[in-house]
Amino acid sequence: MTTTDASAPARVYRDYAHPLWRRLLFTREAAIVVLLVLVYAVAAASVRNFAAPITITYLLLDVAAILFIALPMTLVIITGEIDLSVASIVGLSSVTLGTLHQAGLPIEAAGTVAILVGVVAGAINGFFITVVGLPSLAVTIGTLALFRGLAVGLLGTTAVTDFTEFWTDLAKSKIPGTPIPSVMIVFVVLAIAFAVLLHFTPFGRGIFAIGLSSEAARFSGVKVEQTKFILFVLSGAVSALAGIYYTLRFGSARGDNATGLELSVIAAVLLGGVSIFGGRGNILGVIAGVLLIGILGSALRLANVTSDVINIITGALLVASVVSTSVLAWVHRKRIGAGIKKGPPAPAQD
């Protein structure tokens, strides 16, 4: 799915001539963070019990799986690709965990196998995209149905619920003295790892280069196919980890777990400033995008808004995040065009 976004504004020297504080604050990601703070403040002031510690706990528990999956999805979309199979990998890993545990395997061993299943699923996606050369959109739509079908086929309409109480309680536990779930510790570790990988390593610079132009990246020495393959494997592994959390949190392994979750993940990633055309984005903006969607959904549910309306709002945010990129690019081109027509300043007269 790698494309070169003809409408994306090219970065020139003057984009970096401004002070660092301006380049950090006057960005789309910073705008999302500010919007997140404003929405939370409004929700806390207008929705009863929204700022209560128990609400914060359940809000973070609800978005934890999305936060996990959004990390590798960010890197995948920056390369110009997409992975629509993540939610079905969550379901497949959930079924794997439940089936193996029901067969007598300890949770630790069953979870390890479930993550390996996610790695294999990601490798299948990566193989068809990087070796066979098929578009990621088509491949992951196909594997979405394949992995979901395998998950439902293994358990049918039944569910495995006899999980050890220690693990189900751990998945819902909080950091002592705070309303923050313990699972956020795992997320913070992963977020730091992905942020360092994306923003502070040659591998991460290669990801951005691929998104801007895969051909130019290839001639620059970036191993394009290998990089994409690694990212899809990471996406599968982290999705499987999210599936384990999802299963233990709800105490139920089902083939239809997390159905439709991929839409929330993609909406949050794009809302967080990642360009659907590739080549742009950062981890902080994505985390803010996930939390923004989570806060909106939580506040609306507390205000007795139906799930259909919440889905409409999420869809509208997704469309707006995509359209805004093109609008900003159009404004940027107009400004550049106006500068060219105006011409250089006339030489000073003695």
Automatic annotation (TrEMBL):
Where in or outside the cell it occurs: the entry states:
Cell membrane
The species this protein was found in? Protaetiibacter intestinalis
Question: So where does this one cross the membrane?
Answer: 30-50, 56-77, 84-103, 109-130, 137-160, 180-208, 229-248, 260-277, 284-303, 309-331
Q: Which Pfam families match?
A: BPD_transp_2
One cellular component term from this protein's GO annotations in UniProt: plasma membrane
How this chain sits in the membrane, per its record, is:
Multi-pass membrane protein
Entry annotated with the keyword Cell membrane: yes
UniProt-recorded Gene Ontology molecular function terms: transmembrane transporter activity
Question: Keyword annotations for this protein?
Answer: Cell inner membrane, Cell membrane, Membrane, Transmembrane, Transmembrane helix, Transport
Looking at the record's lineage, which domain of life comes first?
A: Bacteria
Which InterPro entries did the record assign? ABC_transp_permease (IPR001851)
What is the name listed in the Swiss-Prot or TrEMBL entry for this protein? Answer: Autoinducer 2 import system permease protein LsrD
ATP-binding recorded as keyword: no
